[in-house]
Amino acid sequence: MTTLAVTGHMDLTEDSVPLVRDALREALKSYAADGSLVGVSCIAKGSDSLFAEAVLELGGRLVVVLPSKDYRQTKVKPDHAETFDRLMKSAAEVVVLEHETANRSAYTDANRTLLKRAERLIAVWNGSPPNPKGGGTADTVLEARDAGLPVDVVWPAGASRRG
């Protein structure tokens, strides 16, 4: 069994979504070849959900980590609700952290939970530096590397972020 976690940008441009989807599928194929792929994701909009969908498409087992008890109600926007709910129903396991409210501390704990459960990290990351506030994609990549966890960066040519 190979357990992969994901971190990645939420703000992918519309044109980047199919590029990232294809790149993730390609990156995961070798891990799914023997039918023992496990993907761990917070299933946020963007990279997390694209990863989760690729895991399921390749016959893998999805583990969802929710940062807080109120995450669905307070953080999942209407344009992501259908995907979020579908992925929740498809998950083999759902881990809800003890935080009452989704905040930076809850997100940091969720990222640490992902890393603890994984053998590798898949990072949908453009290489940008860490956010001074912490808790972002770059922070998770650095934490994984500091812990000795292998990191596979996925950022296909032509991918970009909004803003």
UniProtKB/TrEMBL annotation:
Highest taxon in the source lineage: Bacteria
InterPro entries, alphabetized: YspA (IPR010697)
UniProt-listed PANTHER family: UPF0398 PROTEIN SPR0331, UPF0398 PROTEIN YPSA
Name this protein carries in UniProt: DUF1273 family protein
